[in-house]
Amino acid sequence: MSITRTAPLPPTTVRTSFWRKNQRRLAPRLFLAPGVILFAIYVIWPIFDSLRLSLYDWDGLGEKTWLGFDNYVELFDDEAFYTSLKNNVIWLVLYLLAIPAGLAIAIFLNQTIPGMRLYKSLFFFPFVISQVVVGLMFSWFYAPGFGLFYGLIEAITGTGIAVLADERYVTYGIIAAGLWPQIAYVMILYLTGLNNVSPDQIEAARLDGAKGFRMLWHVILPQLAPATFIAVVVTVIGALRSFDLVSIMTDGGPYGTSRVLSFYMYEQALSEYGYRMGYGAAIAVILFAIMMVFISGFIWKMWREETEH
Amino acid sequence: MNVSLKSLLLGVSAASLIVSASFAQEKRVLTYNADYDPIPLAAMEALIADFEAANPDVDVKINNFDHEGYKTAIRNFLTADAPDLANWYAGNRMAPFVKANQFMDVSDVWEANGLSEALGSAKASMTIDGKQWGVPYTYYQWGIYYNRDAYKAAGVGEPKSWDEFVANCEKFKAAGIDCLTTGTKALWPGAGIFDYLSLRTNGYEWHMDLTAGKVAWTDQKVKDVFAQWARIQPFITANHAAIDWQDAAALLVQGKAANYVMGNFAVGVFKEGGMTNDNLGFMVFPEITAGLPRAEEAPTDTIHIPAGAKNVEDAKKFLAFVASADAQTKLNMALNQLPTNKNSAVGDDPFLKAGFEMLSSAHALAQFFDRDAPAEMAKAGMEGFQEFMVKPENLDAILDRLEKTRQRVYK
After folding, report:
1. How many helices (DSSP H) and strands (DSSP E) are in chain A?
2. What is the pLDDT of residues A38-66, one digit of tens each?
3. Which of A290, B94, B161, B283 is the most buried (most CB within 10 A)?
4. Cβ of A254 and B384 within 8 Å?
5. Do A254 and B408 touch (CB under 8 A)?
6. Rounded CA gap, B152 and A77, in Å?
7. In Å, how far from its chain's centre is CA B152?
8. CB-based contact A74 B243, cutoff 8 Å
9. What pTM does this model have?
10. Is cis: bond before B83, omega within 30 of 0?
11. Beta strand extents in A230-278 (DSSP E only)
């Protein structure tokens, strides 16, 4: 009691002075707080929770049973896991074709002709429609009996190929469907990049006698490096998380040969015949580890560039 | 002024009257999550109307899901926002929910309404740990549906035996017709073929041991089943892995395929495609091992009360109503399926009659591969069946894989 009387310091002054003193330090943190909190709850925490869950056997309803690393031991002895892994690698490699294809279309479309905007939007169109619709359209395209592609092959070779029912072609068939919107995406990235290519440099190069492929390789591409970087990032991540198309077009079939890791994870943890949450989490952890390789690479590159400047 | 005040007061009191009247009519809501296709939905809505007429103070709110989506949705709504009633399936398929205490024990409904007697044939498949966990409302037979026109086109008659069936396949092939069609994009139609081959080759008891995990998948008797399958494998629609069961039904309707191992629900699809009782035929799957007691496939659909139900009292009333002979007669007439209550009447449809006759004279009834076997085994098995139908040379690898799954699943 006596202390409060002898030291009558109005609380408001304390607060303001504290705020004044630390305002510059606190303000950015306060502004960051909502984002950081959400990120922690919806991204960081689930990552660690998946890691923990992958050590249990759990059907999503009953009791969890501790397994240690049994899920991983089983995973490394699981044919379906290796099929998915192999398909993921195929996806990763072939999906990168979207980058040269997108670049080619972007360069082709980067002209000033009347109505060019319309053509550009038409090329961009596949990226706008939902992946589900893309998947359905391609399944009809491949469908035995009435599919356009099936009919074409039948007309040429005499026997049609049911792409989605043949383990040899099914993954390629789905990747082709995935490439369609992905090329459009890369194209738009390059189109914006091409707008920023400095005309002076092109002119200077032209005076020096550069043209055609050399012009592209030595003058234009270096200036497109930021666009290429983003294109690689989105394509690699897009390939690794490819799920919708597999689910829509084949459901992992025929007999599981078109599975990829993300789909296998869903199948084990959440689908009608699955509900092995722990096993699904173990697959998710592996997928996360693979993605981490690429993501750390990207982050390292960005960080290096930031510190250089 | 005075008048308007009076009228205002009148208006208020009238409004309050309306409010109190609507309070008096406030009904107890019974929520029901289901997964009906359009025709069954209409049939169930008629049953619900009857139930509401008998219980005017209850309002049944049906919440219909897409058939495939329901199978995933049920796990979420049972734990998060349980309805008072939910559709599901009999047999091993309901075991995970019973074991996780998500379904309510309804043995008292069975007790109070004498259902053990009336629903005797379905009791075993509704019982786990000596208690009943739901009420069956319909079941349907599986068998071979065939196109008589295709038989005429190929110049063959209805097979009397399995050997004859296989021999017919050669003739169908010569006529450019698929002897047997199926669409295994969703995997399960292939399991129907396996179940019948297994039931006919080794019998019901053996088949149940297999689905219960007591028999190794590498066992010679399993190979015997696949040996029979290998005889017809070359005559099965080539692209079955790419098509849904309805697409295969279209092949049968168009006469491009002759036979289809299917459930009776497919009759609706065949008839929508333009087939009639004159050219659509039904036969019991022919005998393979002579002298085996004939078992059939008859999946039962059921209704359960989730453990988290709010209006349990009315939900039990509803179950008792659904189980009653009259309600099942009417419902199954509309569904064009078979009632589980033995006191119900069966519809006039020739396929229903054939099914009823076949099932009532059967030695035993199997539910279906994905209901008799636990979910994980079912999935692995059906994938194996699909692979076998595409690549029969992979049989040993498939069986090794299934055996590995069996050892893990039934631990």
Report:
1. 17, 2
2. 999 999 999 999 999 999 988 877 788 99
3. B94
4. no
5. no
6. 52
7. 32
8. no
9. 0.80
10. no
11. none
**Residue A16: strand, helix, or coil:** helix
Average pLDDT over residues B150-169: 93
Residues in chain B: 411
Are the C-beta atoms of residues B379 and A273 closer than 8 Å to each other? yes
Rounded CA-CA distance B104/B83 in Å is: 12
pLDDT, one tens digit per residue, over B242-279 is 888 999 999 999 999 999 999 998 998 999 999 999 99
For residues B372 and B366, give the distance between their C-alpha atoms in angstroms, rounded to a whole number. 7
CA pair distance B158, B160, nearest whole angstrom: 6
Among partner residues B71, B75, B408, which is closest to A60 by beta-carbon distance?
Answer: B75
Cα dist from B51 to B58, B65, B315, whole Å: 9, 21, 11
- Alpha carbons within 13 A on the beta-carbon side of B247: 17
Amino acid at B305: I
Q: Find, in chain A, the residue whose alpha carbon is nearest to that of B73.
A: A272
Which residues on chain B are in Cβ contact (under 8 Å) with A79? 401
CA-based nearest residue in chain A for residue B405: A78
Cα(B184)–Cα(B194) distance, integer angstroms:
12
Provide CB contacts within 8 A for A252, sequence distance 6+. A246, A258, A259, A263, A264, A267
- Residue A124 to residue A184: CA distance in whole angstroms: 5
